[in-house]
Amino acid sequence: VCILVLSWRAYITDFLRVMDMETIKQYEEFIMPISKGMDPFVVESAEGATIKDTEGRTYIDCFSGLSVINVGHRNPHVIEAIKKQLEKHLHCCSYVYYLQTVGELAEKLAEITPEGLKKSFFSNSGAEAVEGAMKLARKYTGKKEFISLTYSFHGRTFGALTLTGQKKYKNKMGPFLTGVTYADAPYCFRCKYRLEYPECDLECARSLERIIGTTSSGDVAGMFIEPVLGEGGIIHPPDGEYFRIIHEILKENDSLFIVDEVQTGFGRCGRMFASEIWDLKPDIMPLAKGIAGGLPLGAFIAKEEIADAFESGDHLSTFGGNPVSCAAALGNIKALKEDGLIENSKKIGEFFKNELLELKEKYPVVGDVRGKGLMIGVELAEQHTKKPLVDLADKVKNKMREDGILIGKGGYYNCTLRFQPPLVITKEQVECAISSLDKSLKKYT
Ligand SMILES: Cc1ncc(COP(=O)(O)O)c(C=O)c1O
Prior knowledge:
about 450 residues, 4-stranded mixed β-sheet, 4-stranded parallel β-sheet, globular
């Protein structure tokens, strides 16, 4: 009997393994329940702009592991750089001993980021980069308060979460930091003032002066701003004066201009950094996500005189600037430059957006199409009433996955479909995604 039971158990276990229900069950039993709503398959492997599951299905990846794999899954430049580093050392602590890859990456970042940015600190994630930037801004200015945008997202640690301008991420976890106020996001589709560009005269930017005057005590260390608000629903201002007005007001208040390029950096928006689109000159810039081809790494880079406000011991991270991640980041920058990926992001991004705009003409449920490069959002909302169509967004995302296309979904109203594929995606793969979206919209509307 015992042998029979054991062999039956072994048979069941093998069967679960083939379906890989075992992994899903392990998640349910042993991982904290933050993963509800995950795409229901287990990843076996990933290459370029495709992901394969354990049942042998191949998907076109239009979300890049939350907008990280900009250079494509398992990019050869990244793999080669990692392998070389693995032969040398994995960890000695980048802030205890001098490490070659760390120095080299810091110099490279100073070369490729907007003019004036020079000295970096390496962390492990975007949220940590934002926290570090907050500390540096306070230390340099001697001021305590911050401004950020409504609809913004800056990470899940307490400082970064305080800056975040969306309740859903804070969900009863306060109290948060004091001294943070929120300025108007350039959300044209849902303009707070019910105006249209250019007649609006960018009231959302100009209102910053009033917001500082009425909601701060005048002790503003800096303002955090995403050039394109990713988690807010791929929101960005028109190509014009928005950021110039904001930066001017900050300068008048002796407050720093801190441009969070965690999500928009490393080719995502058709330029190395989205700052280039609007010719931004940040004082500090947090980075992460697409920085290291899929390995965990964050950084904040600052102007030299600002960076030098930090004294020995003011900031540190045991794993921050791990040499394997830094080597991967060097391979990542090489791939972006040598393989023409930034040009691809711009060119394929334009093609993608134009195709999506055609769907907007065809379906009244496509409220807005916006974005830069390969960071594109499609807000599903009734065009006239702007009513968010959350159920439709869920159905469309699921149907597209059944067709073999993986996309993201989010935004403040949770009805924005997010197209943020690896920058190696081809025109043919984009056409497959468009055709699937077209079919899904036809089916459900
Ligand atoms: C603009 C921005 N800043 C910060 C973060 C936080 O990054 P991480 O999840 O690596 O902590 C994110 C993550 O989505 C982001 O989009």
